[in-house]
C-alpha cells in the first residue's frame, strides 16, 4: 500500500470538490447549502424557517454527503441562522472542515428588541461592516469567516471606503476571502481595479439571482465575472420553489402546504412557470432523474465556469434531490428548448450587428455564418478583415457518466 495513495472517487458527487475560482484555490463542494431557512424567526413573514433540531439534521445531512460550503448572512432569520450554524459546527468539532460565507449590509438588529438607534447597523460603510462582522463572529463561534460578502449596494458608500475597510479585515485575519452580492457589474469591476491598483484583496465571488426563467444575470454579471476571474454563486436557481411538477402542485393544493408566500404572487405557478416546469420535467425523464429541480440546477452549472449554486430548502429529501444535478449532462438541444420558452434579449450593445447571442457559453446560439466560439461570434464589421478562428474560452465541468 502506498503512503500517498489517492483518495477514492466518492460515489456522492457533492464530495467531489472544485477550486472556487481562478483567484481563490480553496476547494469547495459544487453546491452550497443556503441557510436562509436555517433558523426559527421568519416563518411569520412567509419565508421558510426551521427549528434548531431540524436545522442540525439538515446541516448533518449536507456535511455527511460531503458538503463543506455553507452560505448565510448577518440578518437571516434574525441572526438565528448564524447562531444555529455556529453551535452546530462547534458541537461537531468541524469548523475548519467548512467554508462558511456570511454577509454584511442588512440591518440585523431590526427586531432584537434592545437597539434603539439602528441606523449605524446597515449599509456598506466601514462602521456597519466592522460591527456586523464582530457580531457574526460571535454568532458563528469562530475567529474568522471564510468569505465575507457585501450583501447589496447602498449607493451611498464609496468604492474606496468599502475596499479599504474590507482589506483591513482581511489583514486582521478575520476574513479570508471577499465576495459581493446583488451589485451592478460596473461597481464590482471598479472596486476590483481599485484593489489591484492599491495591493488589496479583491472580490473573488459574485452572488446574485439567476435561473432559466430570469436570465438578467447573463447580460453583464457573467461577462464581468469571467473578466475578473470570479466565481458565481447564483441564488433563486429553482425559482423560489415555483418550478415544480403538476403532481406536486396538486399535492400542495390538497394538503395546504403552499411553501413561500412572500413573493406577492401567491403560491400557485403562473402559466409561464408551468410551461418551464413541464419542459424541465420532460428533460428530467430524458436524462434519468425524477427531479426537475435537478435539471434547473444543472442548467446554470453548465452555462459557464465556476458556478456554485446555492440550494436552500428545509427538507433533507429536497437536498438529496438537488444533489442529483451533479449527475446530469445537458445537451445543446436541452438548453435551447428551455431558453425558447422565456424570451430574453441581451440588448444593446451586446446584440449590436450580430443579433442575439450569449457571449460566454459553449451553448451559444449563433446565426448561420458567424465566426466565433463560446466567447461569442465576430460581428459583421470584424469579419470584413478576414476569416478569423477565435480561441476557445474555458468551459464548465460537465459530469462524467460513472
UniProtKB/TrEMBL annotation:
Coiled coil location: none
Chain segments carrying region Disordered: 245-273
Keywords assigned by UniProt, alphabetized: NADP
Pfam families: Aldo_ket_red
Taxonomy, superkingdom: Eukaryota
InterPro entries: AKR_Detox_Biosynth, NAD(P)_OxRdtase_dom_sf, NADP_OxRdtase_dom
Location of the NADP-dependent oxidoreductase domain: 30-341
Recorded family membership: Belongs to the aldo/keto reductase family. Aldo/keto reductase 2 subfamily.
Protein name according to UniProt: Arylalcohol dehydrogenase
Species whose genome carries this gene: Coniophora puteana (strain RWD-64-598)
